[in-house]
């Protein structure tokens, strides 16, 4: 361990090849992996629950990590990031460990990001390769997949579910228990209170106005996949039927992997899915499917 102190703090297990700045504070049940850097002013607290930080992570400066929490390898925490503190719930005892947080690999948390630990039997979970821009927030018991981008100032309430490759624009919001399907796009200054199906674009509060064609192409989707996705969108939102009334039309094409994904997503959406009222605003990465 590279540090001004000759030994690791009591109770902590710091890899010999980790770097801990002399002004960092490490307390309690903490484990820090190979090649990880704990920068000036950082605080790592394993007093409520254990903290496990993997290899090759960087806590740039003034970041705070509170257990119970597990961080994988290669994560980067910029100044004023706060991970693992108690839910913003007046009925929750902040000294209760709960299920904590589980964070994967190669995530970047820019300045001011906050993530709160779970208060149920399951932890708050974040996958791999996500970019959390400045002043973003994930509430307790949230689940975020892989390779997502969360724009500056966006807030994700407790128990949200965000699948892989989702993009959330700046100052957007997700209500508690809301869901964002794989490859979906929530435009800046908009929000979701229900469920936004995969590869659709939300351009206002709960308005699924178009298909994320650019996202589909960038993901390597075939022409057939794109055309089927467009058909699903038109069936749900341009057929004159309410989404639940359109379900038999989707079920008639069950067995198609694209259609099956939508059927499963809609069936699992207890709050219902976004409606299709409104049109995509100019400047959004959208496609007119009429």
What this model shows, in words?
This protein is of the alpha/beta class and 290 residues long. The chain has a domain at 12-159: Hexapeptide repeat proteins (UDP N-Acetylglucosamine Acyltransferase, domain 1). Helices cover 14% and strands 29% of the residues. It has 4 helices and 28 strands. It has helices at 213-218, 223-237, 243-251, 257-267, and strands at residues 12-14, 19-20, 25-32, 37-38, 43-53, 58-59, 64-66, 69-71, 76-77, 82-85, 101-103, 108-109, 114-116, 124-126, 131-132, 137-138, 143-144, 149-150, 155-156, 161-162, 167-168, 173-174, 179-180, 185-186, 191-192, 195-196, 200-204, 207-211. The strands form 2 sheets. The chain has a 17-stranded parallel sheet that branches. Strand 27 (200-204) and strand 28 form a beta hairpin. Helix 2 packs across helix 3.
Topology:
Layout: E1 12-14, E2 19-20, E3 25-32, E4 37-38, E5 43-53, E6 58-59, E7 64-66, E8 69-71, E9 76-77, E10 82-85, E11 101-103, E12 108-109, E13 114-116, E14 124-126, E15 131-132, E16 137-138, E17 143-144, E18 149-150, E19 155-156, E20 161-162, E21 167-168, E22 173-174, E23 179-180, E24 185-186, E25 191-192, E26 195-196, E27 200-204, E28 207-211, H1 213-218, H2 223-237, H3 243-251, H4 257-267
Parallel strand pairs: 1-3, 2-4, 3-5, 4-6, 5-7, 5-8, 6-9, 7-10, 8-11, 9-12, 10-13, 11-14, 12-15, 13-16, 14-17, 15-18, 16-19, 17-20, 18-21, 19-22, 20-23, 21-24, 22-25, 23-26, 24-27
Antiparallel strand pairs: 27-28
Helix pairs in contact: 2-3
């Amino acid at each position: 361990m590279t540090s001004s102190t000759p030994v690791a703090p009591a109770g902590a297990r710091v890899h010999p090849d980790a770097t801990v700045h002399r002004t960092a504070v490490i307390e309690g049940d903490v484990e820090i992996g190979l090649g990880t850097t704990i920068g000036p002013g950082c605080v790592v607290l394993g007093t409520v629950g254990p903290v496990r930080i993997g290899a090759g992570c960087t806590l740039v400066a003034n970041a705070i990590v509170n257990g119970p929490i597990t961080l994988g390898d290669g994560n980067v925490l910029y100044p004023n990031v706060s991970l693992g503190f108690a839910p913003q719930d007046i009925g929750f005892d902040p000294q209760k460990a709960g299920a904590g947080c589980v964070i994967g690999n190669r995530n970047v948390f820019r300045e001011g990001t906050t993530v709160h630990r779970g208060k149920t039997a399951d932890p708050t979970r974040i996958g791999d390769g996500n970019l959390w821009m400045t002043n973003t927030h994930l509430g307790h018991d949230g689940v975020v997949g892989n390779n997502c981008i969360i724009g500056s100032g966006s807030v994700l309430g407790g128990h949200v579910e965000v699948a892989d490759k989702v993009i959330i624009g700046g100052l957007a919001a997700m209500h508690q228990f809301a869901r964002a399907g794989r490859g979906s796009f929530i435009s800046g200054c908009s929000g979701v209170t229900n469920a936004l199906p995969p590869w659709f674009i939300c351009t206002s509060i709960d308005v699924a106005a178009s298909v994320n064609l650019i996202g589909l192409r960038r993901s390597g989707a075939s022409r057939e996949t794109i055309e089927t996705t467009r058909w699903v969108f038109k069936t749900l939102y341009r057929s004159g039927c309410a989404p639940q009334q359109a379900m038999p039309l989707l079920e008639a094409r069950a067995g198609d992997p694209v259609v099956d994904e939508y059927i499963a997503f809609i069936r699992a959406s207890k709050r219902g899915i976004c409606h299709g009222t409104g049109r995509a605003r100019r400047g959004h990465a959208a496609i007119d499917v009429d």
